[in-house]
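quick one before i forget lol
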Amino acid sequence: MAAALDIVKAGDYIAIQRQDYFKLHKVAENGTVNLGKDILDIGMVIGKSVWTTYRMEQKKGGRRNYQLKECSVNDLKDDSITMSNNSTTTSGTDNRNIVDDGSSQKLSMEEIVSLRDEGLSSKEIVGTLIENSTTFQSKTEYSQQKYLKKKEKKYFEYITVRKPTLRLIAEIMFRLDQGKIFGLRMDTLSQITTAVNLHSHGRYIVFESGCQGLPAAAMLNGLSSEGRLVYVHLGNYPSKQALLALNLTEEQDNSLICVNIYNLLRKIKSESNGNSAEEAIVLAKDQEVFNDEEVKKEESSSEKIELTPALKEESTTPEKEMKISSSEEANDKDQILTNSDQENSCPNKRKHSESGNDDGSAKKKSRWEVETDRAASTLSAKADGLVIACREHPSSVLKALLPLIAPSRNFVVYGQVREPLLELLQELIKRPDVTNVRLTDTWLRNYQVESNRTHPLVNMTGSGGYLLTGVKVQL
């Protein structure tokens, strides 16, 4: 029986695989997903296990609308012409005599479309295309396999639902738009977690902007329930697309603390410059006396001066008092006297409420205040590492967050270009509290490995970004 975490639930993210194509999707009841021009009813995967294979069955009356039917992997292999291709089709020695003029296929476009509308499988459609091709037998074996993969990819009718992992999420986001994740590749993320010396029980700080939460997801993915990750961000809300796609458990969610950088630094500064217990009591008493004087002053002014409720909230200077017309005083006299009597009848209640001793009227802390308190409490014992990946110049960010990590701990700064990191490198070399500062370039080359042919892929990224690493030391 599948584990509870492997069962797809409404609201979960899944990775839909169709051959070499992957897509992230949030599951909803009666929801649909677009795969190219095909529209799939994806709601039926709810309650099923991940790694389940489905066949796309065309709906009646819907040309490119499909419903899913659960099947086995063996069914997929039987219907795949590339997986079960054991035929001894003859092939040519070279393609020099083949001319791509569009006349090699005997079937017209309308006839090919009708094959799909008739409900034929992808294997049957591709087989029909091969039979009506005048040049297929003349192609080389490599060209024939390439042709089969291309046609089967177009008419492939099976999908597999997979559980989103960090590698899948990083690769999908990188393939969709590299700019939205600041050019972060999966190999670069692995270099970051290695350089910061990530371990499951540690406390770490991640400052990220413009990466859709991918660095934070990589760090949180390696932490246990006892670890803590302080996700520092700009603005009111952090970017959590990658974090949400991981389908975080309750334990992982408790290990994550999202806080604004300005609120965090302000809170830590106020605690470091805090007063002693005796001074705090004196300040509290002074504040209480100040509140009492304010209440008495307000009550006395309400007896002598009759103002409208809107003007009562403003300053009661003599200049403003003289601007009040006698007609306004007459119209609002009864209401003001009633308000004044209410204030005079319960001065003790007002004093008690404003002094902050009334639990019922005490202001409840907002979520960002609670998260700021949690972050400051977590970092009171210093963090075990720091990761910075931002579009802004990292110099000021590193200077502000470096004191929050403990000595002999690592920090990593990621940048898509090296010039800002070179400037930061020159600054860190002069600092006595930093050592082992290095600037490295991440490089990865993908290879295609097939029988009788192994070569690098044609399309690759030139660079995976730059990493500035170092160790903080105690003076």
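fyi The longest strand covers residues 405-415.
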